[in-house]
Amino acid sequence: MENNQHQKHTKEIYNYAISSLLEKAAYYGLRAIAVLYMIGETLKMENREALTIYGWFTASLVFSGIVGAIFGDLLIGNKKAILIGGVMQAIGAFVLCIPSLTGLYTGLFFVIVGSGFFTPNITSNFGKLYLKRTRLLDSGFTLLYSATNIGAFLGILVLGYLGEKYGYNIGFAFAGILMLISLIPILSSKEVILENDQKCEEFPLGKRVFSILVTCIIVGLFWGLYQMSNIRIFDLQLQLRELSTSDIPSYFWESINSVFVLPISLIMYVLWTYFYSSQFFKLLLGFVFGATSLGILYLIPEAPTEEHTITYLVSIIFLGIAEVHIAPIIHSVLTKYSNPKYLAILISLSFLPTRLIYVIFGLFNEPVQEYPLLGVKFGIKWMTVIGVLLIGLVIWAKRSNKK
User: Fold this and answer.
1) From the first residue on, what is the mean pLDDT of each consecutive set of 10 residues in the chain (403 residues)?
2) Which of 112, 237, 381, 402 is most buried, with most CB under 10 Å away?
3) What is the pTM of this model?
4) Given 1.20.1250.20, 3.90.550.10, 1.10.10.10, 3.30.230.10, which CATH number is that of 205-402?
5) DSSP per-residue string spanning 212-226
6) Using an 8 Å Cβ cutoff, are 237 and 256 in contact?
7) How many CB atoms lie within 10 A of CB 211?
8) C-beta separation of 155 from 102 below 8 A
9) What is the CATH number of domain 2-187?
10) How many Cβ atoms sit within 10 Å of the Cβ of residue 11?
């Protein structure tokens, strides 16, 4: 009986992972070709206008996620919200096939609302599968993160190819079909039903609130520092790509982050299944690897030679390790310390600190763009400082768990 329940639980986990992979393939592939479609022969927009629309599109996802989470947690249930979100995104993708501004705006609207319903609710339902196995939360969310990255990687390649080879309408239509296929695993999954007042573990309210707030701020700071350093990373990527005399394919450079993050996340998924360490310790390691990555990056001169390619790739590998220690862990913390009845809402709200930090750090974009090494130096300094603070947090968490 116990073995049968374990098999059902494992099947549910993989159903959600496969659904997320397919949906993200469609979603990120659609995003990849949307701007090219807007500036192409059909709509003939200026680059600035297309990028402005794209900016509004990505910004709106934060607010649509909050709306979708409220519907999922309080009104219709998470599973129905996922299904509605997938169908709405599919409708949006098909509407984008209409070659007009009306088709563009209507299609993007459906994709925004649909993504807001789909993403926080599927993440929430996935987390609830681990309510009685909290030691596997990090491993589970790393699997989901791997699926998301694989989907994004494949979606950008496949839909980008279809859009350029056969026309963007074909790309949008294929994205819509993928969205609908992504719902099949959800249809075969059971609704996650919570017991009355069920929580992952019993923690004092103060500790729960503190852990969630601190984690959201720390993760937001990581992505803000990552953003500032990314200008230098992208600049080096372009320079080294031009200098390269080897047969490294262009798609390798364009998706270099995913090339390393995917195997790293799969390795961590297996490792964390068998070896447990606290979420705060993983966040600490994320900042340690992040600071190390930027330190290696800082060693590369402003005018690199081809010999610096290996140094650059080592830096990207360390940054990938840092990312895997940061990105999935926030969802583990939210699932572990929150009331699962409102988990989707909390997941959607967790993006707000990151967005706010992005806006604050964006005020320094002009000097960083002029002197890219400035962003790297800033990132090294503050990742080190936050890492030191996290050592104290890890010690506090260890002591409080013993009480």
Assistant:
1) 66 92 93 85 81 86 94 94 96 93 92 96 93 89 93 88 86 94 91 60 80 92 89 84 70 71 92 91 95 93 86 93 94 92 93 83 74 86 93 79 59
2) 112
3) 0.90
4) 1.20.1250.20
5) HHHHHHHHHHHHHHH
6) yes
7) 21
8) no
9) 1.20.1250.20
10) 13
